[in-house]
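Run log, item B.
One chain of 154 residues. Sequence copied directly from the ordering sheet:
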Amino acid sequence: MKRIGFILLAVLALAGLAWLWKPVPPKAAPFPADLGSVEVVAKLVEVPPGAVFHRELYHYATILRYEVVSCARGNLKPGDVIHVAHYDPWKPRAEAGDARAGQVGGTVRSFVAGDRHHLALAAPLDDHYMGGLVDKYFGQHAGVTYWALRTDVD
Protein backbone atom coordinates (compact mmCIF):
# COMPACT_ATOMS: atom_id res chain seq x y z
CA MET A 1 0.00 0.00 0.00
CA LYS A 2 2.85 2.38 0.82
CA ARG A 3 4.41 1.61 -2.52
CA ILE A 4 1.24 2.62 -4.47
CA GLY A 5 1.03 5.86 -2.48
CA PHE A 6 4.67 6.63 -3.25
CA ILE A 7 4.18 5.90 -6.97
CA LEU A 8 1.06 8.05 -7.07
CA LEU A 9 2.89 10.91 -5.35
CA ALA A 10 5.80 10.62 -7.80
CA VAL A 11 3.44 10.64 -10.81
CA LEU A 12 1.64 13.73 -9.50
CA ALA A 13 4.95 15.51 -8.84
CA LEU A 14 6.19 14.78 -12.36
CA ALA A 15 2.87 15.89 -13.85
CA GLY A 16 3.13 19.14 -11.89
CA LEU A 17 6.65 19.75 -13.14
CA ALA A 18 5.63 18.96 -16.70
CA TRP A 19 2.77 21.46 -16.41
CA LEU A 20 5.17 24.19 -15.26
CA TRP A 21 7.71 23.52 -18.02
CA LYS A 22 7.21 25.71 -21.08
CA PRO A 23 9.23 25.13 -24.21
CA VAL A 24 11.42 28.06 -25.23
CA PRO A 25 10.46 29.34 -28.69
CA PRO A 26 13.28 29.23 -31.23
CA LYS A 27 15.16 32.49 -31.67
CA ALA A 28 14.88 34.26 -35.00
CA ALA A 29 18.07 34.60 -36.97
CA PRO A 30 19.78 37.93 -36.29
CA PHE A 31 18.76 40.75 -38.58
CA PRO A 32 21.37 40.95 -41.36
CA ALA A 33 23.23 44.27 -41.29
CA ASP A 34 24.08 44.15 -44.99
CA LEU A 35 20.80 43.08 -46.59
CA GLY A 36 19.45 45.68 -49.03
CA SER A 37 20.38 49.34 -49.13
CA VAL A 38 17.87 50.65 -46.57
CA GLU A 39 17.08 49.43 -43.06
CA VAL A 40 14.22 50.99 -41.10
CA VAL A 41 11.77 50.39 -38.33
CA ALA A 42 8.41 51.56 -39.60
CA LYS A 43 4.75 51.47 -38.62
CA LEU A 44 2.36 49.86 -41.10
CA VAL A 45 -0.16 52.65 -41.69
CA GLU A 46 -2.90 50.55 -43.27
CA VAL A 47 -3.71 47.40 -45.19
CA PRO A 48 -6.16 48.54 -47.87
CA PRO A 49 -9.13 46.26 -48.61
CA GLY A 50 -8.22 43.84 -51.40
CA ALA A 51 -4.47 44.41 -51.07
CA VAL A 52 -3.85 40.98 -49.52
CA PHE A 53 -5.65 37.93 -50.85
CA HIS A 54 -4.85 34.23 -51.00
CA ARG A 55 -4.51 32.59 -54.41
CA GLU A 56 -2.51 29.36 -54.56
CA LEU A 57 -1.72 29.65 -58.27
CA TYR A 58 -1.25 33.43 -58.43
CA HIS A 59 1.92 35.01 -57.12
CA TYR A 60 1.98 38.77 -56.68
CA ALA A 61 3.45 41.60 -54.67
CA THR A 62 1.30 44.17 -52.90
CA ILE A 63 2.31 47.68 -51.97
CA LEU A 64 1.74 48.78 -48.38
CA ARG A 65 2.20 52.22 -46.83
CA TYR A 66 4.53 52.73 -43.85
CA GLU A 67 5.59 55.63 -41.65
CA VAL A 68 9.29 55.53 -40.74
CA VAL A 69 10.02 55.39 -37.01
CA SER A 70 13.82 55.12 -37.26
CA CYS A 71 16.42 54.55 -39.96
CA ALA A 72 19.61 52.53 -39.44
CA ARG A 73 20.77 52.68 -43.09
CA GLY A 74 19.65 54.91 -45.94
CA ASN A 75 18.44 58.49 -46.20
CA LEU A 76 15.00 58.21 -44.65
CA LYS A 77 13.89 60.25 -41.64
CA PRO A 78 11.36 59.56 -38.88
CA GLY A 79 7.91 60.55 -40.12
CA ASP A 80 8.67 59.87 -43.81
CA VAL A 81 5.92 57.91 -45.57
CA ILE A 82 7.22 55.10 -47.76
CA HIS A 83 5.63 52.48 -50.00
CA VAL A 84 6.92 48.92 -49.75
CA ALA A 85 6.16 45.94 -52.00
CA HIS A 86 5.78 42.58 -50.24
CA TYR A 87 5.80 39.34 -52.26
CA ASP A 88 2.93 36.89 -51.66
CA PRO A 89 1.72 38.90 -48.64
CA TRP A 90 -0.76 36.21 -47.58
CA LYS A 91 2.15 33.95 -46.59
CA PRO A 92 4.23 34.28 -43.43
CA ARG A 93 7.44 36.05 -44.43
CA ALA A 94 9.55 33.00 -43.54
CA GLU A 95 7.67 31.05 -46.24
CA ALA A 96 7.35 33.73 -48.92
CA GLY A 97 10.63 33.35 -50.79
CA ASP A 98 10.76 31.31 -54.00
CA ALA A 99 12.50 31.26 -57.39
CA ARG A 100 10.49 34.27 -58.64
CA ALA A 101 11.05 36.53 -55.65
CA GLY A 102 14.45 35.37 -54.51
CA GLN A 103 15.50 35.68 -50.91
CA VAL A 104 12.66 37.32 -49.02
CA GLY A 105 11.87 36.41 -45.45
CA GLY A 106 11.36 37.52 -41.88
CA THR A 107 9.34 36.86 -38.76
CA VAL A 108 6.09 38.66 -39.65
CA ARG A 109 3.25 36.15 -40.00
CA SER A 110 0.56 38.55 -41.28
CA PHE A 111 0.16 42.23 -42.05
CA VAL A 112 -1.88 44.20 -39.50
CA ALA A 113 -2.29 47.97 -39.60
CA GLY A 114 -0.52 49.65 -36.70
CA ASP A 115 2.17 46.97 -36.32
CA ARG A 116 5.82 48.00 -36.33
CA HIS A 117 8.18 46.18 -38.66
CA HIS A 118 11.96 46.05 -38.93
CA LEU A 119 12.53 46.15 -42.68
CA ALA A 120 15.49 45.50 -44.97
CA LEU A 121 14.64 47.20 -48.26
CA ALA A 122 16.04 47.48 -51.76
CA ALA A 123 15.19 50.04 -54.42
CA PRO A 124 13.94 50.60 -56.99
CA LEU A 125 11.29 47.89 -57.13
CA ASP A 126 11.76 47.26 -60.87
CA ASP A 127 15.38 46.18 -60.28
CA HIS A 128 14.23 43.40 -57.95
CA TYR A 129 10.79 42.25 -59.04
CA MET A 130 8.91 42.03 -62.32
CA GLY A 131 5.60 40.29 -61.80
CA GLY A 132 2.01 40.73 -60.69
CA LEU A 133 1.56 43.84 -58.58
CA VAL A 134 -1.37 45.06 -56.48
CA ASP A 135 -1.06 48.81 -55.88
CA LYS A 136 -4.11 50.25 -54.11
CA TYR A 137 -2.20 53.57 -54.00
CA PHE A 138 -1.75 53.81 -57.77
CA GLY A 139 -1.58 57.47 -58.77
CA GLN A 140 -1.40 58.57 -55.12
CA HIS A 141 2.34 58.26 -54.54
CA ALA A 142 5.45 59.33 -56.35
CA GLY A 143 9.07 58.53 -55.78
CA VAL A 144 10.70 55.29 -54.81
CA THR A 145 8.77 52.09 -54.16
CA TYR A 146 10.87 49.74 -52.06
CA TRP A 147 11.15 45.96 -52.30
CA ALA A 148 10.97 44.17 -48.93
CA LEU A 149 13.81 41.68 -48.58
CA ARG A 150 13.17 40.99 -44.90
CA THR A 151 10.25 41.96 -42.66
CA ASP A 152 10.60 41.24 -38.95
CA VAL A 153 8.30 42.02 -36.06
CA ASP A 154 9.77 44.95 -34.12
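Observations after the first pass:
- The beta strands are 38-46, 60-73, 81-87, 105-106, 116-122, 132-134, 145-153.
- Residues 38-153 form one domain.
Flagged for discussion on Thursday.
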